[in-house]
Amino acid sequence: MLQDNFGRIHDYLRISLTDHCNFRCSYCMPQEEMEWMPQSKLMRKEEILTLAQTFIGLGVKKIRLTGGEPLVRKEFPELMQALSRYPVELTLTTNGVLIHKQLETLKKAGVRSVNVSLDTLNRKKFLQLTRRDQFEQVWENILLLLRENFRVKLNAVALHGLIEEEICDFVSLTEKLPLHVRFIEFMPFSGNHWQSKKVITAAQMLELVGKNFEMIKLEDKIHDTTKKYQVPGFAGTFAFITTMSENFCAGCNRIRLTADGKIKNCLFGKEELDLLGALRNGEDVEALIRLSLSRKHQALGGQFDPDYLKANPDAIQNRSMIKIGG
């Protein structure tokens, strides 16, 4: 069992398969021309599996594969097949553009839930945000997942000046489609030009939704990162990930493993321990995992005030989101 000094049990591991991505979203990737990690620094397939087994042995029950974009990794089918043999729930976060090519892989691995990042329903805005003209393919793949009875969560980063125009359009999607839309408050990472004035909070978004829809509050569980709602009679739901305005650190059960094999005990934590290096040197990986958990801060990686208006992005030491893993 993996328990930190605040009594939180950690049984959910997010593994980044690569820092590469076929999109160039500005809030995630600082610039178009990125310096990618050299192949020698990345976890090899066998190393990913060995570390996953170690975490499962320590009580991890759920693994989410992330990136970058996890589907661009050439070994993705082999990794999914191998991981599917372990006693763990497997899931995935993706930009969705390659889903049609990997659908059978996901089905054979027993994956039943997929998170798709989609920040706009407008093709032109999609091109501006991602620098890729792939909206139609992403949307077709979302519908494909629904037809194949996957549980689909849409993750939309709530960018001030954009989400206000589209939030009701996203909620409208849930009338006929069993989608679970999640609006994510804009968070600070290296190079993403975060400012508190760019944050639109869940309360502000909820007010916008309330002008157009009747809604009911759904039950939130202890480890949920979302505040969930539903329009009565609609097939799907919508929710808010309130990292900035109302953090959910007290119920955190998540650990992250970056593509280069570093353990992060918090998305915002600056401290990382090198599990890959330890594995390659024959050192005690389990001891490093427990050490990392023992150093976990009570909230927000100990890097900024729970009042996001007081957060100083220049003082936060962290990687860019694409280097951490979604």
List keywords for this structure.
single chain; 326 residues; alpha/beta; TIM Barrel; twelve-stranded mixed beta sheet; 10 helices; 12 strands; 29% helix; 17% strand; globular
Folded structure, characterized:
With 326 residues, this protein is α/β, with parallel strands linked by helices. The chain has a single domain, classed as TIM Barrel (Alpha-Beta Barrel). Helices cover 29% and strands 17% of the residues. The chain has ten helices and twelve strands. It has helices at residues 45-57, 76-83, 99-108, 123-130, 135-147, 163-176, 202-210, 275-280, 285-294, 321-324, and strands at residues 12-16, 62-66, 89-94, 113-117, 151-158, 179-185, 216-217, 226-230, 237-241, 254-257, 262-264, 273-274. It has a twelve-stranded mixed sheet. α1 (45-57) links the parallel β1 (12-16) and β2. α1 runs parallel beside α2 (76-83). The longest helix is centred in the middle third of the chain and has 14 residues, at 163-176. The model has no long low-confidence stretch (mean pLDDT 91).
Quick summary:
This protein has 326 residues and is α/β, with parallel strands linked by helices.
In the CATH scheme, the class would be Alpha Beta
* Uncertain runs: none
Q: Can you list the strand order of the major beta sheet?
A: 7-8-9-6-5-4-3-2-1-10-11-12
N to C succession of SSEs:
EHEHEHEHHEHEHEEEEEEHHH
CATH topology-level name = TIM Barrel
Number of helices: 10
Specify the overall morphology: globular
